[in-house]
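tool=predict chain=A
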Amino acid sequence: MLPTHLLVIRSGATEYDLLGRIRGTLDIPLSTAGIAEAEAAATQLAAAPPDVLYVGDGPCSEETAAIIGRKIRLRPRSLGALDNLDQGLWQGMLVEEIRRRQPRLARQWEENPWAVMPPEGEALDEACDRVDAVVERLLKRHPEGRVAVVVPHPLDRIIRWTVAGEPLGDLWDRDPAVPPIVDLPIAAGWKPYMRQQPILG
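tool=predict ok
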């Protein structure tokens, strides 16, 4: 049996992303630049389309998936458990504003997000548990083939961490140098990546 390939696709940028504001679970549509990013991702995927296309909650993910779906002729399937990391009272704030108002907490978040929960937000462990459950469900449904999921930042990095142990990096930094599409081969018998020792990237 061939391994499943999980294609993790980061949704296009919103105005919040471009301004350096924390989007979290806020319903913010794609910016003009984000639409262009989604179209570029669609063109890239058209060369080797996935077998199925899933999308997490939120306008930016849904718009990105719709653009991709039209290009590769796949209808996106909704995955409600893949809503973004809830960053609570930080949502809508500028990252620089948090660093100025709460420098100690901001530094802890950037150095070890496992040890900090955004005020009234979601713990990183909880987000990983959600991701683990979704991936396990997808593997049961698609034991082989290419499965694409469109999710917002930073949920794309959280998926890559829990599936393949890739470094989380800065969860506030939507780095344009980070590839918007990452192919993760998942062998039979896959188990969620062990999280006892946080990997800082």
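The domain at 4-186 is CATH 3.40.50.1240 (Rossmann fold). The longest helix spans residues 124-141.
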